[in-house]
Each structure stands twice: as C-alpha cells, then as structure tokens.
Amino acid sequence: TTIKNMLALFPIINHANVCDLLMQCGKHGAEPELERCVPILAAHTPDVDRDKALLLPRKVILSVLRHEALSDIDHAYALGRDFLLKESPGLAMAIAKMDKHGGQAPVDRNKRPRIGTEDWYAVEILDTLFLIRNKIKKREMESSRSLPSFRILIICAELFEDYRMDVREKLMRSGCTQVEIVLAHQRNPSLEQLLTFHSVLVWSNADFHDPNSLGDILADAADEGTGVVLCPYALNAAGGGGSIGGRILQYLPCSLGFIEGGEELTLIHNKHQLQEHPECQPLVDGVKELSGGRESMHMTVEQVIGNDHCLCVSKWSNNVPAVLINLPDKRRLGGVAVWNCRPGSSDVSDHGWLSKGQGQRLLFNMLKFTTATKSE
Predict the structure, then answer these.
(1) How far is CA 237 from CA 82, 322, 334, in A?
(2) Closest CA to 253 of 194, 332, 321, 344
(3) Residue 111 has what pLDDT?
(4) For a Cys-Cys bond, which of 26, 51, 306, 311 suits 57, CB 3.0-4.6 Å?
(5) Nearest-10 crossing angle of helices 73-87, 58-66
(6) pLDDT for res 10
(7) What distances in angstroms separate CA 226 from CA 18, 119, 136, 277, one per listed residue?
(8) What is the pLDDT of residue 192?
(9) Buried b (16+ CB within 10 A) or exposed e, 33-60
C-alpha cells in the first residue's frame, strides 16, 4: 500500500526517478507497480543513471531486457552485460564469447537452475543478452551489405589458382567492387561472413570440406537475403564430397544431374518463360551470344516442376537447362540460381565458356539478380 501510494504521487514516471521507484518496488514485492515502471526504463535505457540501474534486482533487469518497449538494443546490451559481470562473475567467459561471436548461450537446458532462484535469473538474462547480441550483429552485417558497392564471395572447392583468379577477375571487370574467395575444400565460411556479402558463387572441382554443413549455411544466408548462385560440379547426382548437400537442396530450382560434355553448345533464351515472367529479364540483359566452349561441360539437371517460383530462363542447344532461378518467397529473401556451366572461361580452361561471348555478363547478372540487398 505504501508503494502504491508513493507511485500515486508520480502521475508521470520519467527516467530520472524510475530506478529509485523500481528498487522500492523490487524490495517490497509490489508487482503491479513494478510492471508500470519497467516500460519506462526499457524505453529510456540510454538516459537512466547507469550506476543506479546496476543496483536493480535481477528480476527487473530481465523484465527490462525482454520488454517490447526496449528502444535501444545497444544500451540495453551494455546494461545487461555490465550487470552480469558485476552480479555473476562466473559467467565472464560466456560473456566474452557472446561479445565476440554471439550465437547461443552455452547453458545446458537440462541442467538449468531452479526457476525463480538468483542463478536462474542470471542464466535467463544471459540467454536474453545472446538474443540481443545476435540482433546487433545482424544489423551490423546488413549495414555493411547496404554500402554503395556490390560484394561477392566465391566459395569453391577448386585446386587451380589460375582458374579461381579468372572467375574473380572477370567479376571485378563486370562491376563488382569486392570479390573474395573461400577455399571450400579446406574450410567452410561462417554464416556471419556470408551475410556481409550481397551474393555468393559456389562451384566444385574437388571435394568440399563439409558439403552438408555448407549447404545449411547457404540456405540460412539465402533466408536472410544473400543471393546464391551454384555451378557445376556442385550439383553432381553421383554424390561424393564434391556435391553440395544440406538444406540448400530444398531451394534448388532443378534436380541434381550427372556430368556431361564433349561438344560445343550455345545458349538459347527461353522466350516463353521470359514473357510469362518479365521480372526475370534482368538475368539475361546484354547476353546475346554465349558458347559453352569446345567441351561445354554441364550437368544433366532438370527443372523443378510444380513450383511457380522455379523457372528455366535459358537452355543449352541440346535442350538441357542452362540458367535456372528459384525466386524469393515469404520465407526466403534471397534468390537461388543455377548456371549450368563451369564458371571459368576459355582463357584458362579448354572446358570453359568462350571468353568472346557474354558469359561474364551473365554471371554478373545472376549474382546481382539473386540478392535482396540493394547495391550500386
């Protein structure tokens, strides 16, 4: 009753007195009055007296971090982090990991403290801070992708450096402002790394380090808006370490296929498909002539039927799909495309597309089309 009467003297609670009021509410177990104060602190974490806020009960800190009125996640994260370092120094290593990597709190759900205890509140605060830290990291990565640039990550299990560099140099000449390479036969990139790029280009000519894990990472990146373009031999139906696995298989616009080649093929646009889906025209803009080269190595893939988002934009002259796209949907922000051609040109390989054609432009178009992030 005393607390209730005291709060009645504050028709408008502001950030200058909210910490003092919350301490009294927590001390006397005044739940309804506490619930009135928590949104004020959540909405004004940058403005409150930090020293006073660090003296609040754990229950109050947890309520503030989880409240929908939370307006500044950076200040909220700093408040919760400093609070745990003061109140629960045994969590310092977990907090250091959180600061650096984000991810999930290293707490076994089967060994959590009893609900309502001080230790339980500490663990719940840590869990909530990990969620906030991940939001901060995601915002930072999205911000880096929104820069006036076009950033591409090549993820390839490719042993020949001159082949890798041919692809990279042609993308740079096409207008990409940054093209980096991850040697996927040695390691997988992290999801955090992928999310700093607009699109990724994936192919194999050797075994992937971990094809299933890589496929899961690619699918997660596509969900968040990163464009994904795959080339042979990453779609090999014969299996083995050079064939991509994991969740990205659910997003492919075509089946896996077997390696085929040995004759020169030319690219033919699917006019009927482009007329029905004019939004896909940017994929083939400026691509009037393209030969797959003397060998025209490709995969015997087939377009996915029954999914309106899966389209075949171009075919090879032997009627095998050449350019396919799985358009974004409500769950997945980025497009997933397949260029059924080895990405290196005839400048470095007899198996490459003829460099006098517009293969360079086509690859650039596909990478540009699939990303959900605006670029220049």
Answers:
(1) 52, 17, 24
(2) 321
(3) 74
(4) 26
(5) 160
(6) 52
(7) 43, 39, 18, 22
(8) 87
(9) bbebbbbbbbbbbeebeeeebebbbbbb
**Distance (Å, rounded) from C-alpha 212 to C-alpha 136?**
28
Taking Cα atoms as reference points, which of 369, 345, 341 lies closest to residue 357? 345
Q: How far apart are alpha carbons 43 and 76 in whole angstroms? A: 10
Q: Using CA atoms, how far apart are residues 174 and 2, in angstroms rounded to an integer?
A: 72
Tokens describing residue 143: 């911000």
Residues shown for the chain: 376
21-26: long-range contacts, CB 8 A cutoff, minimum separation 24:
22/56, 22/60, 23/52, 23/55, 23/56, 23/57, 25/60, 26/56, 26/57, 26/59, 26/60
**CA–CA gap between residue 314 and residue 310 (Å, rounded):** 13
pTM: 0.67
